[in-house]
Each structure stands twice: as structure tokens, then as C-alpha cells.
Amino acid sequence: MKTTCILILFWLLYMLLLSEESQTSKTEVKCNFTEKNYSSIPADINQDVTILDLSYNQITLSIRDTSDLQRYLLLTELYLIENNVVILYNNSFGNLFNLKILNICRNSIHIILQDAFSGLNKLEQLYLCQNKILQLNPDTFVPLKNLKLLNLQGNLISYFDVPQLFHLELITLYGNPWNCSCGLLNLQNWLNTSNVTLENENITMCNYPDILKCYSIKTVPYKAECYSKLSSPIIEDLYINFQSISNLTFNSSLNNFTRNSEHEPLGKSWVFLVGVVVTVVITSLVIFFAIKCPIWYTFLRSYNHHPLEEHEAETYEADFTGYPSSLSQISDANSEETTVIFEQLHSFVVDDDGFIEDKYIDSHELHEEN
């Protein structure tokens, strides 16, 4: 009797599972809107859609589009291949709790905000191939607890810090300009110690430095110094620097859309450069005017003059008045030379008032003496 009851119970349970599977298969709804030249999410989509294909359109996945997507709660697959998506905003797929496959390949994505994939707890496959992604924040993948496949092929990623609790089965990384300096050591360790499979490992090559271009990112040999210190992103890498500038530009333009954007301080190297240029120009002008305008020396020398004292004036008067008597004794043969000397000395002869003309003599003192 007990055996019969157990068999009946198992039979009922089996029939119940079959009915649920059949009901699930019957409720699967596919909507294909490919190559319709849509610029936004169309409004005539069945609310019960489970597989939605919007590939080969002009959709930007703006904030309005993301809010429209929240209505399709039963969606399990979403395809946005070859659209005009540039930014993945926070909570872009917030209410799509049942989504398992998300394909956004062949767009122009270069910014993915940290909470872009928030709410996708059941997502298993994520395709971000052939975009313009420069760098990925590892915290972006934290909500994707069931992610098994990640495709990042054909982007501009040079460094990738593997997030914690990342349990992928397949990852695609080829077609990126990988910087195989010490900063990529953590990624290599994860690829070699986890159960993940690196697709097309033989063509997932280093792009920098030149000496390591012939190595795969999974087999590149690292020096002992890379193991003795914590690995960090390579700041001198061209792509990392470009990413910082790109993020700064994006953050300044995204203030009207999100409160989570971060601002980076501007460097002051340009201030130093401007100061050097101005200093060189001013120094050059000073040297030029000093050479081309010697009249400056005259003005500088004039400041060394000082009013003559009374005993100095009498001495100069006595000295200069004695010259005419000596000049009268010079022969006629040297008359021309005498004339020149007399004219030169005549300029120093004092006036009738007994004072040497000097522009620095105080006019008030002169008036009192008169």
C-alpha cells in the first residue's frame, strides 16, 4: 500500500513538471524588429515577449529607451546587435530579472557605468564584442552572479582587473591592445588557475611592450619583480591615459543624466608650461631693448650725479680760469689745435654768477644765496 502511494505521488509530481514545461514552451513569445531603422524602442511590442531582437537599427539605448525596456518582465533574450549604443547607463536593464542572454555587439560603446547591469541576476551570456570600450570597472560585473560567458573581443581594452567571485566558463579577449606589463599579471593568474576557457588563446596576443608582442597574454613570462609587488594599472600606457581623458569628458557631460558620475582633477602641467614660455619671452625682450636702446645707460648714469659743494665749485673755477693764460703762450703753428682745446674747455667755464650749472642744484638754495 505504501509503495502504491509513493508511486502515485511520484507520478503526480512528474505530470506537474511536464505541464509546467509545456506551459513555458507555449508562453515563449518571439518578436523580431531587425532592420526597421528604429531610432528608439518601438511601442508595439507584445508585453509577454520573451525573445526580442532589435538588431540592425539606429537605437541609442537612451534613458528613455531603458525605461521602456522595464515593461518586458518576461524577457529572457535581448539582441541589440549593430545599433548606435554609446553609453550603458545605470540600471539600463533593471527590471529584466529573467534575462539570460544579452548581446550588444557591434555598437559604439565606450562608457559602461558601474551599475549598468544591476538586476541581471540570471544573466548567463553577455556579448560586448566589437565596441570601443577602453576599460572596465570590475565592480560592473558584481551583480552577474550566474554569468558563464563573456565576450569582449575587438575593443580597446589594454588592462582588465578580474572581479572577485568571477566564475566564468568561457571568455573571449582577442582583438584588444593588451598591455602585458606587470599590471596584467592578475589576469594571467586567473586565466591559469581558474576553470575558465580563453577562446582563441593563440591569437590573444600582447600589444605592448614590443618585446612581448609574440606572446599570448596567458603565457607571457613575467619577471620576479612583478610577483614581489602588487600589480597596478600601467599609467604610462597610451590607452590608459586616453581612457582617463575620455572619462573626464564624459563625466562633465553626464551631470544632467546621473548623480553617480565621478570627476577627475585636472593636472597643472600646462600652468608650468605657460609660466616657462612667459618667462622666456620677457627675458628675450629685456635683452633686446638693453642692446638696441643704449640710451638706458645714460639715464642710469644720470642718477649718479649730485649737487656740487661750494668749495668744489671754487676749485673748479680756479682751475679752469687758469687755462686761458696758458693757452696764450702756444705758438701760431698750433693755433688750430689751440682753438679746439679752447672750445672743449669753454664748455666747462663757469657762468658769471660763480656757480657751475648743474640741474641738480636746488633752485630754492640758489635763490636764498642770491
TrEMBL record:
An example GO biological process term is:
positive regulation of non-canonical NF-kappaB signal transduction
GO cellular component terms attached to this protein's record:
plasma membrane
State where the protein is found.
Membrane
Cited SMART domains: LRR_TYP, LRRCT
| Keyword vocabulary terms for this entry | Glycoprotein, Leucine-rich repeat, Membrane, Repeat, Signal, Transmembrane, Transmembrane helix
Single GO MF descriptor: signaling receptor activity
Q: Which InterPro entries did the record assign?
A: Cys-rich_flank_reg_C, Leu-rich_rpt, Leu-rich_rpt_typical-subtyp, LRR_dom_sf
Q: What SUPFAM superfamilies does the annotation carry?
A: L domain-like
User: One Pfam annotation, family name?
Assistant: LRR19-TM
What the entry lists under Gene3D superfamilies is as follows: Ribonuclease Inhibitor
Q: How does it sit in the membrane?
A: Single-pass type I membrane protein
| Domain LRRCT span(s) in chain numbering | 176-227
Report TM segments: 270-291
Signal peptide span? 1-19
Function description: Pathogen-recognition receptor which mediates the activation of TRAF2- and TRAF6 NF-kappa-B signaling pathways and induces the expression of pro-inflammatory cytokines. In kidney, prevents infection by uropathogenic bacteria by inducing the production of cytokines, chemokines and antimicrobial substances. In gut, involved in host-microbiota interactions, plays a critical role in promoting the recruitment of immune cells and intestinal inflammation.
Subunit-structure text: Interacts with TRAF2 and TRAF6.
Question: PANTHER family this protein is in?
Answer: LEUCINE-RICH REPEAT-CONTAINING PROTEIN 19 (PTHR31450:SF4), LEUCINE-RICH REPEAT-CONTAINING PROTEIN 19 LRRC19 FAMILY MEMBER (PTHR31450)
What is the protein named? Leucine-rich repeat-containing protein 19
Q: Which gene encodes it?
A: LRRC19
